[in-house]
Each structure stands twice: as C-alpha cells, then as structure tokens.
Amino acid sequence: MKILYHHRVAAQDGQSVHIMELIHAFKDLGHEVRIVGPSLRPKNFGGENKALNLFRRFMPGFISELLEYLYAIRAYRKLLSAYHEFKPDFLYERHNLFLPSGMWLARKTGLPHFLEVNAPLAEERSKYSGLSLKKLATRLEHQTWRSATHVLPVTEVLADILVQAGTPRNRITVLHNGIDKSVYEMLDGTPIRQRYGLGSNVVLGFTGFVREWHRLDQMIRLIALYNGPAAPHLLIVGDGPAIPKCRTLAQSLNVEDRVHFAGFVDRMEIPIHLAAMNIALQPAVTAYASPLKLFEYMAAGLAIVAPAQTNICEILDDKKDALLFAPDNYEQAKEVIQQLVADPELRQRLGNAAKTKIDKQNYTWRGNASRIIHMAERGSAH
Fold first, then answer.
1. Residues 141 and 261 in one domain
2. Cα separation of 10 and 40, whole Å?
3. 6 Cβ contact list (under 8 Å, min separation 6)
4. What domain range is 168 assigned to?
C-alpha cells in the first residue's frame, strides 16, 4: 500500500524513535511511505530545534500557539500536494496540538485517516508548560480525534479519554509502543561494567530523560542503605533537569562511587547499557503513557520494577514478569528492589518472562505496522 505519513516532530528524541521505527516497519513489510513533516530537524539523536526553542522561550504563549496553527495551514498544503502527486491509500498521522491538517485533508479528499495519539496534549501542555489558547486547543484536539477514520491510542487509559471526548469506541484500537527486539540479541554488557567499575555487583538501571517526578532520589537513598564490596550500584543513562540534584544527593550520602551518571548516550548504545544492568527501574510514569523504556527493559530480559497503575498493568503482570509497587509508595518500591537484589533466581525468572512476552503479545514495531495495514486493507474492502 501507499502510506502518506504526517507528523510535526522537530526534535530527535523518543518521539522520533517511534516515528522512524514504524516507518521502517512499514517499508520492511513492502509498503511505500511518503513523509510530510518539519524540514528543519537536528541531525543527532537527543538534539532539538534550538531556534524554535528560543522563539518559544521569549515569545508570548498565545503568539507561539497561533503560529502553530498557521503551521497547520502550511502542512495542509504540503499534504494536499503530496496527496495529488503520491496518490496514497491512506494517511497515517501522529497527533499534535493545533494540527488539524490531516483532518482537513481527509475531509477534502475522503482519504482514510489513521490518527496515532500518544497523549491528551491540551491537558498535558496546560499542566506542565502552560497553554494560553486552551479552549481552542482542546476543541481542535477533540474534533480531530472524533473525525479520524480510526484512532490509535497507545494505552487503554488513553482510549477511555478519547471516548470521554466523544470518539466512537468502535473506531479506536489500542496499539502499545513496541520494540525492534533484534538489536537486543547476543549483547555483552562487560565493556559498560568495566567503564563504570561495576564489577560483578547487582546493578539497578534507569534510561531516559530524568525529571524530578521520576523520583530517582529515592533510588539513590536505597543504594545508601547498603555497604561493603558487594553493595549494589545504580546506573542512570540519560540527562535531564533532575540530574544535578541527584549528583548532589549521591555525594551527600557518600555513594557517588556507586551511583553512575552515563549522561546522554546515542540510542544505538542503549541496548549495551541495558546489558550491564540486572534490575530496570520505572519509578514513576504518567497515567496514560506507554513508555518506550518499558519495552526496551523487556527486550533486554531485565527484572523490572514499576508502579502498579493501570497503564503499566496493561503490559506487565505483578510477580509474573515484573514486581510492581503501589504508585508513589517508594518504601514498598525499596522493599521490592531489596528482594530482587537478594534473589538472582527471581531476577532471572522475571526477566525471561518479560522478554518472552514481547513475542507472545507481539510488542514490536513490525507487529504494529502489520495491524495498521490490516485495518487499512479491511477498511478499503468495505
């Protein structure tokens, strides 16, 4: 099939991983993809559009948001041009705020519109970074959700939010994030263990952008409960605003020799860093997210510790393929981790079960691409 793929992601981050992996999976299945998206994007993973960031920092919020809407008009023109030239079978769009371009194209042409939704963005931006035109943003967002041929949220929690906004349930299919498990085969974490002096000690690990609400401070306090040559280590792979406080805390607790900050690493280096870990941490997560790191942890065969909230429980089963703790109960989280530190057989059993689940549930980008194609083919046959 011919797929017109539209997005407005201008950074090289987890969003871009999702985009490129799914496009690669479509192509790997033999389909043709035409991408319409921002032309100014950083070359290196982890990079952001610096000019865009500066503009947003100094420009009043409502002006920045109006320009987002104006961008949607430009994007619509690009989509319409691509539609006439490429003659796609359907449009696949990653939802963004003030971006009704795909909806407009579908209404103009009748092209089937598959809309991937990763978050309720009006609510999210209003809460975390502020939103001046919240009423307009919410109205456009809900219109886009309701008008799409098929909506693909990444969790059942998010699907319920879509339904509450008026999206028909029979046009919603949940597609959790996925993984390319081939890059996690036959990995040796020895070089990473040597680099940080981890030895044969148990290693707790976290990957990703580090914010204060991830509560890695609680994990550092846990490390401080141990002493001696066999004490566990903590390896934090990623950067973010919470890192300076984490460093200061590690120093104040005299565990800076067992809390290691790898900083930002290229995403191709993530698997080998995971191979150096024994226990993978997801201390906190937003209620509707499908964390990419969770699938990376599973593919790496790690014992996972995460909060027992609905979106996590869609993926993991407590005591079967992970150990879960009550959300925000970090004393319970510490007890669970201490149990894993002391029990290598339990770590192995949980890690193996998590890795096996990738295949059982087909939590792969190729699997997601196949499901989308099946829906598109089924729709075109009606």
1. no
2. 7
3. 35, 36, 37, 75, 79, 91, 92, 93, 94, 101, 102
4. 2-178+364-381
What CATH code is carried by the domain that includes residue 165? 3.40.50.2000
For the chain, the domain total comes to 2
Same-domain status, 15 and 162: yes
Instruction: Judge if 130 and 42 occupy the same domain.
Output: yes
Do residues 347 and 370 share a domain? no
What does the chain come to in residues? 382
Task: Tell whether the model's pLDDT for residue 48 goes beyond 60.
Answer: no
Q: Which of 313, 322, 325 is nearest to 350 (CA)?
A: 322
Given a cut of 80, whether residue 102 has pLDDT beyond it is yes
| Cβ atoms of residues 351 and 303 within 8 Å | yes
The answer to whether residues 86 and 34 touch, using CB atoms and an 8 Å cutoff, is yes
- Sign (positive/negative) of CA torsion 5, 65, 41, 290? negative
Q: Are 114 and 89 in contact (CB under 8 A)?
A: no
Mean pLDDT of 234-248: 96
Residue-level pLDDT at 45: 45
Q: Please give the residue that has the higher pLDDT: either 57 or 278.
A: 278
Average confidence score pLDDT of the chain: 93
In this predicted structure, what is the pLDDT of residue 67?
Answer: 87
Classify strands 90-94 and 203-207 as parallel, antiparallel or unpaired: unpaired
Tokens in use for 273? 């860093």
Question: Is 35 within 8 Å of 3 (Cβ atoms)?
Answer: no
- Give the single-character DSSP code of 142: H
204 in the same domain as 146: no
Residue position matching structure tokens 């089937």: 112
